[in-house]
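Exercise 3.2. Students should predict the tertiary structure of the chain below and write it as C-alpha cells, then compare their answer with the key that follows.

Predict this chain's 3D structure.
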Amino acid sequence: MKKIICFEGTSGSGKSTLCDLTVSYLNNHGTNAKKIKFPTGYLGNKIREARNAEKRDPFLESYLFACDFRHCYTHIVLPNAGCNTFVFDRSFVTSYADSNFGGNSLELIANINRYNPIPDMLFILDCSPERAVARINERNLIANLFNLGTFIY
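Answer key:
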C-alpha cells in the first residue's frame, strides 16, 4: 500500500528542507521514498496564475488544487511500482487554509476533495512570518551568489 506524507506551511517555513531530510532518512532505512513538489507541473502554472490574479477566485483555486492532486495521485503515485512512500511538499490540504480564508466553507472544500486520498501523515509547520521571510531572503542570497559564480566556504 502506498503511503502519503505531507508537509504544509507558509513559504519559507522549511517544508522543502524537511521533505528532503525525510526522503533521505526513509531511503537510508529501507523504504523507497520519493519527494513530490506540489502543485505539480500539470496544473501548477494555472494555480499560480489564479493565486496571482488581480481578483482571486478561491472556488477556482480549490478545484485546481484538488484536480492537480488527483492527477498526481493517479499518474505518478499509483503507477510508480518501485516506490511505496511519497513525501509531498504541500498538497491539496493547502486549499483548506487558502480557500477557507478566501470565503469557501470547509464543507465545500471537503466535498471538492472527497475523491482524493487522505494523507497518512500530515505535518503543519508553524513558522512566524518574520522567520519565514528571513529564510526566504537567506535562500535568495545564496542562490544569487551561486548564479554570480561566488561561492561561500
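Discussion points: Confidence is low (pLDDT under 50) at residues 147-153. The two ends are 43 Å apart (CA to CA).
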